[in-house]
Amino acid sequence: MRPLFALLLALLTPLLLGAAPAPWTFDRDGSRIEMSVRAFGGSHTGRFDDWRGTAVLDPTRPQDARASMTVQAGSLKMSPSVATGRAIGPAFLDAARYPTIRFELKSLEPLGGDRYTAHADLTMKGRTRAIDFPLDLRVTGTRAQLAGAFMIDRADFGIGTSGPWNRLVGRQVTVRVAIQARPG
User: Fold this and answer.
1) Helix (H) or strand (E) run with residue 22 in it
2) What are phi and psi of 173, to 5 degrees?
3) Can you tell me the distance from the alpha carbon of 18 to that of 31, in angstroms, rounded to the nearest whole number?
4) Which of 73, 77, 82, 156 has the least CB density, counted as fewest CB within 10 Å?
5) Using CA atoms, how far apart are residues 87 and 44, in angstroms rounded to an integer?
6) For residue 163, is it left (φ>0), alpha (ψ between -120 and 50) or beta?
7) What's the pTM value of the predicted model, to 2 decimals?
């Protein structure tokens, strides 16, 4: 009798509790992670070329989405290109000692339509900070598109806080994401 009960419980649990959200894979070719900062009297932009991540998403309940991304700090390419070495060097991202940047999406708060407030943790140079920011999430068929931006104070992560460059580079850094994903 017990094996039958265990089998029934195993078969009915997904029906009673609802199926777990499906994993989604990021489409790196159709996605981008960029940053911009004011420095030396102008705006300087950069793009991270090497990153990986996964997401769990139920299109009928996007507010329950979760995502995890790992960005290789040394993959940042700045414009103008002369700024790349300094940006990933010891005074700023210090990619040699802190090679990864981690982003963990904890929840999405619905604002109406395709708009949400994302609640996430961002870890850089061994420091984790909670961030909240607006984003758009559109799920159509087997494609999800997420777009949003947030600002960080680089000093919160110990980025560029000493030396002569500190006063020449703005403390506020804007990070923009445009991510595409598909089930699987």
Assistant:
1) strand 22-26
2) -115, 130
3) 31
4) 82
5) 11
6) left
7) 0.84
